[in-house]
Design brief:
The complex is a heterodimer of chains A (300) and B (236).
Chain A (H helix, E strand, L loop, with lengths): L9 H25 L5 H14 L4 E2 L5 E2 L4 H8 L1 H18 L8 H23 L5 H26 L6 H32 L13 H23 L1 H10 L5 H5 L3 H4 L5 H33 L1
Antiparallel strand pairs in A: 1-2
Chain B lengths: L4 H5 L5 H4 L2 H16 L6 H18 L3 H8 L3 H13 L3 H24 L2 H10 L4 H31 L7 H32 L16 H19 L1
Helix pairs in contact in B: 3-7, 3-11, 4-7, 5-7, 6-7, 8-9, 9-10
Classes of the chains: A mainly alpha (300), B mainly alpha (236).
Chain lengths: 300, 236
């Protein structure tokens, strides 16, 4: 689910942009440390592969077909950080070239699908991907990556104040589950088929992949599951939370602000914009510092 | 599969095509942010913003109907949510969702319709996007159509060999998985070939543009004028 522009309220997209920039930076740094130069074209071509894979239909039920989403498949063939990098590039190309997802919402989409989605997809593989139950790890990863990114997107829409009646939310959560199951089945069978062709193309789960990544993956997973549970049990709760935190401006949509907006000089708007910008800089700074700290701890 | 239409549009030579990508990116960002913070009932502001976009399309000589239709790609999603909001008793938000997301899409199309993607990515890199990410995106865009065409051949071949749909779901599922695995392996080997070819041509680690980016005074003027105009319209 690529969120277009103007669906998220300004504080939501802006803070997700501010979170995603350092997160992608961290992934890029990790990826460039792990990768030999030979693999750089590989990442791009694999991104193209994920695009093209959408054309191959998998029959799943009565008259319907699914296709690969790819986050978990990339994670267990390329590793988590390179996979996150490839997904980021895919989402950016989709936003610019195919008008699939917004530009201001790029941070939100990247966070949902490329950061949280890929990390959640890699988590089970890293935990028990080397054991006998490897298949179940791949399945669980693919399942989680879809559920986590979809419920994050849903949560962000709700917290932005997009009203959705409870039945609509429950139906969409059920649909997420179904498509997550399909993604799991597709990913497992494709990984098995790839291993038949060349076992070297699927990475062994890295045991020493570092605590930082594990913590991040766990956090992504928790966030996604929390979003899922909250959205299914108390959608109004999320909306109220959004209103309380000032993330949705209820008034600008309800009260007739016509004369206010047409005032001689809307200094309130400028003041809010400045305050918002300052807040963003703080979020950005904290994320950057955290990223730097993790990187230093790892290299030390 | 033919190259995307937008790519053909982007090779024009109008005043908008000639602007430095960074100036256009900044102008787009200002436009999107101003639009995002405009209330849905500020009809005057929204009309002036739309007029600015239409003027941009005219100046760039892009096919108007075609572009507006392409931007309609966002409508299924936004109309669905618009309908839900409407039913939930927020007609203003519903209208805002639909019209503002449509305007944003037109604005993005105006940028990519006047800037070839390699140049756009070059601009993003010089604005601070990580080099590795930009490199991956360049490769991705370059091979997108190659690999997609391959996938389409696979699809055609499968459609020719398989009987009418609905039967043998299980074996079809496995056949599709096999096709994807072969596509994966071929992409993998192709990437290795690309790397060798690039090494033998002395690839230095980043793409060079045919004409290096130059941010002239007029580009700065363009970005500043668009930004000032939009902000003035918003706060007046």
């Amino acid at each position: 689910m690529h969120i277009p522009d103007n669906f998220l309220s300004t504080p939501v997209w802006a803070s997700l942009d501010a979170v995603s920039v350092p997160a992608v930076g961290l992934m890029v740094r990790r990826a460039s440390r792990e990768l030999e130069d030979t693999r750089i074209p590989l990442l791009g071509v694999m991104g193209a592969f994920v695009f093209a894979a959408q054309m191959i239909n998998f029959p799943v039920g009565i008259g319907t077909s699914g296709h690969l989403v790819g986050g978990a498949l990339l994670a267990c063939t390329l590793g988590a950080a390179p996979a996150a990098l490839v997904m980021t590039a895919i989402i950016a190309i989709q936003a610019f070239v195919f008008q699939d997802g917004g530009v201001l919402a790029l941070g939100a989409n990247v966070f949902n699908m490329a950061i949280a989605g890929v990390l959640a997809g890699y988590f089970p593989y890293q935990l028990w991907g080397a054991s006998r139950h490897r298949k179940s790890a791949i399945f669980a990863g693919a399942f989680l990556s879809v559920v986590v990114s979809a419920s994050l997107a849903l949560g962000e829409l709700l917290i932005s104040g997009v009203k959705m009646p409870r039945p609509v939310i429950l139906v969409s959560l059920a649909l997420f589950m179904v498509s997550a199951l399909i993604e799991g089945a597709i990913t497992v069978s494709v990984v098995q088929a790839i291993e038949k062709l060349n076992p070297g193309m699927v990475q062994k789960p890295e045991a020493s992949s570092g605590r930082a990544l594990a913590v991040l993956s766990g956090a992504a997973l928790l966030l996604g599951i929390a979003g899922f549970l909250l959205a299914s049990s108390a959608p109004d709760g999320i909306q109220n939370l959004g209103i309380q935190l000032g993330l949705t401006s209820k008034t600008s949509f309800h009260a007739p602000l016509a004369d206010y907006a047409a005032g001689a000089f809307d200094s309130a708007w400028l003041r809010r914009a400045t305050a918002g910008l300052a807040g963003l800089l703080v979020v950005y700074g904290v994320c950057l510092a955290a990223g730097k700290m993790i990187a230093r701890r790892r290299s030390a | 599969m033919h190259h995307v239409l937008v790519d053909q549009w982007s090779h024009g030579a109008t005043a908008l095509h000639k602007r430095d990508p960074r100036a256009k990116i900044l102008a787009l960002l200002v436009f999107l942010i101003v639009l995002a913070t405009t209330p849905a009932n500020a009809a005057v502001t929204l009309t002036i913003d739309s007029a600015l976009l239409l003027a941009g399309i005219l100046i760039a000589g892009l096919p108007m109907t075609n572009l507006l239709l392409r931007a309609a790609a966002v409508l299924p999603f936004s109309l669905t949510f618009g309908l839900i909001s409407w039913l939930a008793g927020e007609p203003l938000r519903a209208i805002g969702l639909v019209e503002k997301s449509y305007l944003s899409t037109v604005a993005v199309l105006l940028l990519v319709g006047t800037t070839p993607l390699p140049v756009l990515l070059g601009g993003l890199e010089s604005l601070g996007a990580p080099r590795l990410l930009v490199l991956v995106a360049q490769f991705l865009y370059r091979y997108l159509f190659v690999i997609s065409e391959q996938a389409q051949h696979f699809r055609l071949a499968a459609a020719c060999r398989q009987g009418p749909p609905g039967k043998h779901r299980r074996s079809r599922f496995r056949a599709a998985a096999g096709a994807l695995a072969v596509l994966f392996a071929r992409s993998y080997y192709r990437a290795e070939g690309i790397h060798r070819a690039m090494m033998s041509r002395a690839f230095s680690g980043h793409f060079r543009l045919l004409s290096p980016l130059r941010f002239r005074a007029i580009d700065g003027l363009f970005a500043a004028a668009v930004a000032a105009f939009l902000i003035l319209v918003r706060v007046q």
